[in-house]
Design goal:
The structure is a single chain. By secondary structure, the chain is mostly helical. It folds into 2 domains: about 1-75; about 75-130, no CATH class. It is built from 6 helices and no strands. The chain has helices at about 5-25, 30-40, 55-75, 75-80, 85-110, 125-130. The chain is extended, with a radius of gyration of 20 Å. It starts with a helix and ends in a 24-residue tail after the last helix.
């Protein structure tokens, strides 16, 4: 019966997602936030309907990889060349604004600008740029939130 647990979890995820997406459609809201709400609902911190969170996370990572692969297949290098200026300017602007806003927030909360690479205010803007779940500080550990975000120095 253990081999069917993941199928039961997927059935629950699909059923709750369908109900939430139908509700969001009726409210004329986009589907993407509906999927996020469905994930929060079935997750371990809300209703706890999913029994094996780690196995579902592994399948979700495969799904993201397949999604990115599909986007890559449909992506045109010619179109990228046409958009190269916008891509570079947009990317640099995003990085600059993220670093600036995080540095200002660190300054506002009086985080010291020390030499230590992991606890200084100069470290946090760079950490804010790392948006991939692959680089999460809780990777490989429990999905429960830790007491603080600041790493030990």
């Amino acid at each position: 019966m253990n081999e069917y647990v993941i199928l039961q979890d997927l059935a629950v995820i699909f059923a709750v997602s369908l109900l939430v997406i139908l509700l969001f459609h009726r409210l004329k809201l986009p589907a993407l936030p509906g999927f996020i709400v469905a994930g929060v609902l079935v997750g371990p911190d809300a209703l706890g309907l999913v029994s094996d969170v780690h196995q579902v996370e592994s399948l979700a990572e495969v799904g993201v990889i397949l999604l990115l692969f599909t986007i890559g297949i449909e992506f045109s290098l010619g179109r990228l060349r046409e958009m190269s200026r916008e891509v570079v300017v947009g990317g640099l602007t995003q990085v600059g604004l993220t670093v600036g806003a995080t540095a200002l927030a660190a300054r506002a909360f009086a985080v010291p600008w020390t030499v230590s690479p992991c606890c200084s205010a100069s470290w946090w803007p760079c950490r804010a740029l790392r948006s991939s779940s692959r680089d999460s500080p809780t990777r490989g550990r429990s999905t429960r939130r830790t007491a603080g975000l600041r790493p030990a120095c």
